[in-house]
Amino acid sequence: MSRDAARAVTIGTAGTSIDEVVAVADGAPVLLDAAALEGMARTQSLMAGVLSSGRPVYGLTTGVGDLYGVTVGTSRTADIQLAMLRSHASGVGEPHDERAVRAIMTTMITALAKGFSGVGPALVQTMAAMLNRGVTPWAPAQGSVGYLTATAHIGLSVFGFGRSWFEGELLPGAEALRRAGIEIIEPGPREGHALISGTYEITGVGALAVHATRQLVDVADAAGALSLEVLRGNSRGFDARLQAMRPHPGQAETARRLRALLDGSAIREANRDHRLQDALSLRCIPQVHGSVRDALAEVERVIGIEIDSVTDNPVFVIDDGELVALPGGNGHGAPIALALDYLAIAIAEVSTMSQARSDRLTNHHLSELPPFLMAAGSAASGFMIPPYAAAALAGENRALAAPATVHTVSTSAGQEDHVSMGTTAAIKARTAVANAATIVAIELLCAAQAVEFHAPLRPGAGTGAVYDAIRALVPHRTSDTEIAPDIEAVRLLVIDGTLHDLVTAVTKGHHD
């Protein structure tokens, strides 16, 4: 991964954005704000008074969960905190990938740096060093009802236990830190508990899902516009006057973008009066993609708030020079879990509409194009099967759209009797958007093949740029050679930002 210092993300007193979480996930280094570190040190310096007061403080002088009434000793703080991490490190299944772990760690640092968890600066400094030097904790992705497990595995790695990836090798945690030149620290008061108590896993994975969806919807507009062109569709439904009669912001914005993408299209102009009314998958792109945009805006709002929230329990405030513990329920993941369930539903909408267009493109009974987009008279299967793959993935995304949040259960002997299932919601959404990228890639591949049947007419300004980018990697298909590499080539254009940047360049600031 690149470690471009120009892209460094500063975490501390200012807010951290979704884009910054994603930047760190993709390799940007982390800088820590000095004022935040000073605030953390000030809070930590008062922790001794809390410990000596004799007052019970959840997770500090007591057990956790249903053991909140059991007093624990304070003579060996590090042992108590490490024991908490070890007992909670019960994740199962395949591990989170590197991007997910880095995103989770970024949200952990962001919350802890606000100074309300009672932890010291050395903790976040160690975590930032791990991000900056490429030490990635091994943390299973399954087994969480919304918190506790993956972050416990990460916490063990922070203190030199567990396992971590470094330079492509999975190592014991202490060895990974040693090779990276990072000093191993012992946990101070709360420094195990604070790492597991928040919604960091949901938020980090959710931020990746939101960012990917934002880029995908823009590319899906281009796929839909290119499909409309080659299917000789009617673009009058994108008229701004019509959109103003139903002024949902996402719908109006999608129609504007479609007009920009299609601007100057010789194919559209030649077929302007070809069909009075199109199928819904073409006619209603503004309504469907627009609804997804509106849903995405709400999810972004929620995730943005959560990144800059303190979701630990308890938290500590300074009152008359003393540290006061405030126990509460900010660690419940309901706000972001519900939002991410909503996001998975929205992604399913993009998926099913794109799949419908792929099927239409290859169906000569509907498309007025050669069967399976091969030259007339050909017996080649051509593009018969890629829409099958799109259909399979769209079906999977419909299953992933089923909400996770309704499946709450009682845990911890009834003490935690309503959990968010937010980790499941976040992973569902991220999986769904990855599937949707392939679905949209298949539509783009089919639509690009159809462009040649309109030669010498060219697509529009935006759709033409997308078509050219595809053709730079994938040639027009004339026979049945292996097609999977072509799908993968276009998928990479979708997910690496290439097509998004082309579409943005055309649509940004466009006015009719």
Word description of this protein:
- The chain is mainly alpha-helical and 512 residues long.
- The chain has two domains: 5-197, Orthogonal Bundle (Fumarase C, Chain B, domain 1); 206-409 and 420-507, Fumarase/aspartase (Central domain) (Fumarase C, Chain A, domain 2), CATH 1.20.200.10.
- It is built from 22 helices and nine strands.
- It has helices at residues 18-25, 34-45, 47-52, 77-88, 98-112, 121-133, 149-158, 173-179, 193-196, 200-230, 240-243, 249-262, 266-270, 280-283, 285-307, 334-362, 364-367, 386-400, 422-451, 461-471, 484-495, 498-507; strands spanning 9-11, 30-32, 92-95, 136-137, 140-142, 163-166, 169-172, 315-319, 322-326.
- The longest helix is centred in the middle third of the chain and has 31 residues, at 200-230.
- The model is unreliable at 1-5 (pLDDT under 50).
User: What amount of the residues lies in strands?
Assistant: 5-15%
Q: Specify the structural class.
A: mainly alpha
> Number of helical segments?
22
The second-level CATH architecture of the largest domain is Up-down Bundle
Q: How far from one another are the termini?
A: 41 Å
The CATH topology of the largest domain, please?
Fumarase C, Chain A, domain 2
Molecular shape: elongated
CATH classification class of the largest domain: Mainly Alpha
Biggest sheet, in brief? 3 strands, antiparallel
Strands side by side in the biggest sheet: 4-6-7
In total, how many beta strands? 9
Helix content: 40-55%
Query: Unreliable runs, pLDDT <50, ≥5 residues?
Result: 1-5
Rg value? 26 Å
CATH superfamily of the largest domain: Fumarase/aspartase (Central domain)
Average predicted confidence as pLDDT: 93
- Count of distinct structural domains: 2
